[in-house]
């Protein structure tokens, strides 16, 4: 998503009233969740809301003790989704979603560290409220104001807004812009989910769905962060062993991917 498309979001956060009605979400998918100790796995989850909206999401669940986060730079030429699988396999990634925001010329918005190389500078613009990174010891998701650079960080994306914090949906998120969404969520122990929605919904709706027990995760979501969305929303899970990849194609090229690889 180009930076210019962030401007309506900034305006909506300021102007949206806190009294807007929020949806209650219930799962339509009734298959059991993978066991917490299971290896990396894919899940397609369907929810329905009390306001009549349907949410279908591709999810990849993984344990940070066994898997690392990676950021794969696709270059300023903005590689199309058709090139994702080849790039993903070459980098040893098992799954990926589109990553952070970028400018019209393809330059990343906010700090990005891909494969240990810093590609841009740290930003303090309001939408980039979170920092997602891997330092070799684990995966971290922090508020921008709390982040401190340190040696060993080889994968980092600055993005936002924060969707869930301390188990609660963040207040003040937009209730107006309906778009496909990409996100990362965690129980802040060792369990993580990378997700992308097939259907459009607002940021406030996504936050409420993530904070609803059992809706988009088998464990309570302690914190979650929005990644680039809209026409940039894409998802790829490679099950290997000759099986066809599971894919949600982005509608336009993107600058980088956030992915998962084995430790």
UniProtKB/TrEMBL annotation:
Domain Phosphodiester glycosidase per the UniProt entry, residue ranges: 92-260
Pfam families: NAGPA
Keyword Hydrolase (UniProt): yes
Keyword Hydrolase attributed: yes
Keywords assigned by UniProt, alphabetized: Glycosidase, Hydrolase
Gene Ontology MF term list: hydrolase activity, acting on glycosyl bonds
PANTHER family referenced in this protein's UniProt entry, alphabetically: N-ACETYLGLUCOSAMINE-1-PHOSPHODIESTER ALPHA-N-ACETYLGLUCOSAMINIDASE
Protein name (record): Phosphodiester glycosidase family protein
Origin species: Thermochromatium tepidum ATCC 43061
